[in-house]
Structure formats: structure tokens, C-alpha cells
Amino acid sequence: MGDRNLRVTLKAKLMFSILSLSIISIAIIACTAFFSLNHYIRQSTAHSLEGLAKLKSQAIDNFMKDRVDQIEKTASSSDLVGNLEKMSGEKEVQQQVVPDVILVDNETPPEGIFEEVELQESEKEVKEEVEKSAEYQALNKALSIVLGDGMKYEELFILDTSGAVVVSTVYENEGKSAQNIAFFTNGVKTTFIQEPFISDITKKLAMVIATPIKDENGKVIGVLGARLNLDKFYQVIRDETGLGSAGETIVGKKMGEEIVFMGPTRHDSDAALKRKVSVKAERERLHPLQEATRGREGYGFYKDYRGVETIAAWCHISSLDWGLIVKMDVKEALEPVLNTGKVIVVLAMVLIIAVIFLASFISKGIVSPIQELTRAADSISKGDTDVKITIRSKDEVGDLADSFERMLAAIKFLKEKAQEK
Hints:
Layout: H1 2-75, H2 78-87, H3 121-132, H4 134-147, E1 153-159, E2 165-168, H5 182-187, E3 192-198, E4 205-214, E5 220-228, H6 231-238, E6 248-255, E7 258-261, E8 276-278, H7 279-282, H8 288-293, E9 298-303, E10 309-317, E11 322-329, H9 330-333, H10 335-381, H11 396-420
Antiparallel strand pairs: 1-2, 1-5, 3-4, 4-5, 6-7, 6-11, 7-8, 9-10, 10-11
Helix pairs in contact: 1-10, 2-4, 10-11
């Protein structure tokens, strides 16, 4: 009974001690590895998105700069200025009175951009005469050449100082008016970019760049406008490289107390000009798009318009005064961590099973000699001195077995002496 209690108790203690130490060590190492990898993936993903956001912002700025530079260069060309002056006739061109401060009104223009104007018979005759002039033909040709430059524009047009369209690559728009539209009221003063709208030509999102046309004395004699082809522009925004299966890019502009989406998103193709974020409602949690429209950069975690937790990076698009967000779902971003976590769990289980076998082997190696010595001691206590000790280990247990054998030999010797007497 005592032998059984000793064997079970000692083996159980050894098994428990080895397993406890092993499992605690494995758990600490596994948790440390998992959380370290989780932190690393979060940070590396955020930094990657931050770099991607800056690249996209720079690409958009370069796109707009290229278009603005070309329109300003065209508007300042001597041929265009000279022909527009001649078209205006011998009378002095009256410069429209414009405010000293640029108008901030940037409402989306109507689909057709221009307002319809009903011409009188006399005005129609004048228009027909103008269209026959060499100056008109020269201006039309100059705009057509620019229009054919790499499909950058949908339409190029020239407005006089009253806002009337005098020349356009879309003939139907000639004679119409832009007098009350932001790109004219601002364009007579400085280069101005109209916010996106749905083009009546392509039925896609478009924008207008307008810049003043000045004579050699610096007097405004008209406005050159360009309706942009935004296919490449939105290709940059909608490029999903590096964003996984659910990531996307969002652009928006602050208008009053709302931030309006300025382009379609991956999950909402109709988001442009329709989806909005309330500045007041989002003020407490500082919506990244709100931060970006304020000219701030950063990265972090937030729930997007779908209510999904995302990793996002944001920055400002200076050329358009827009905010830009590049984001991807946390679940997808951390998928490698979850997969690694599963591998860690499997490896931990394998290690624990191995530890169990190892603990059993070690405990058996320690307990078996003690059991053998216990049995030998029981036999000796019953008078049997012919017990054989088979323990030959070179450790403390082996030393104990050697001592036991010397003790047994002494008992045999004393027993023989006592028998002789």
C-alpha cells in the first residue's frame, strides 16, 4: 500500500511540476509572439497605408498641376489673345467688374454647365458672322489641338467678359452663358477649379478649370475654360493595389457643416456628391476625413461608413483642398496574425504532448529506482538478504543504490558471523 502511494504521489508531483513549468513557458512565449506579431502587422499596415495615401495625394496634385499649367499656358498664348481681341471688334473690350476677394461659392454646376440664352434675330446674325471670321476659325482650331492632346479634356471653351460662350469645341454650347456659375465668377479673377459634377457629354464625373485671358496690358478680355476628362484621375483614386479585397480610397471636401464624398468608393459606386459625413456628428471621434480636410495627416483605427473597423491613413490634397483616406478592413489586415495564431496553437499542443511524454519518461527514470530500492528494503526486513540491486545509474540515485548494496553486504556479513557463534 505504501509502495503504491509513494509511486503515485512522487510521479504525480514530478509530472505536474514539469508540465506546469512547460505549459507556462510555452504560453508566455506563444502569447508574446502573437501580440508582438499583431502589433507589428498593425503598425506596418498603417505605415504602408500612410505611404500609399501620400503617393495618391501626390499623383492627384500632379494630375491637376499638369492640367492647370496647360490651360494657363494656352490662355496666355499670343495667338489666342490676339485672335480674341480681334473677334471683340474695334470697340474696347469692357472688363467685367469682379470682387476683390475671390468668391468662395463652388456649387456644382448643372449637367450642361451653361445656362441657355435665347438670342434675338440680330444677335443670331452677328453670331453667324463671327463664326465665319478667320479669328473664330483660328481660336476653334487652337482649342481643338489642345483637346486632342491625349484625351485630357472633354471640352474647351472661351467666355467673354459677360460670361457668354464665344468659342467651344462643343458647338452646341456656343452662345450659352456661364454668368452665374462659379467657374466664371472666379475664373475672371484667377485660375479656378470647379468641383466635380456629372457631365452631360459622357454622363461621368467631370471638373472644370477656368483661368482669365489677359491682353498685353493685363486687362481681362475673357476666360478660358476646360472640362476635364477624369478617367485617369479616378483611376488613381480607385486603384486597389495593396488594399486587399475590401480596402478602398475615399476623397471628400468640407462644405459647410458636411464633408461631401467627391468620388465613388469601392463599396458604393454612387457615393460621389451623394454620400456625406456630418462634421458635428463626427466631431467627438474625429472622423479621419474631417481631419484630412483640415490639412492634417495621420493614421489609426476607426469604423467607416459601413460600420466596419478599419486601419486608415489620411492626408490633404492641396491642389483641390480635399481630404483623402486610404483604408482596409482590420479583419483582413490581421488575417496573417490569425493564421499565425492558429499555427502557434497547433505547435503549442504538439509541444505539450511532447512534454507529457518527456515528463513521463523523466519521472519514470527517477521513480523506478526508488521503487526497486523500496522493494529490496521490504525483502530485507523480512529476512531475505539475497536481494539483487540492478540500479547502475551514474547520479545520486546510483550512489544511493551503491550505499544500499554496501549496507546489504554488511548485513550479510554480520548475519554469517552471528550464525558461526
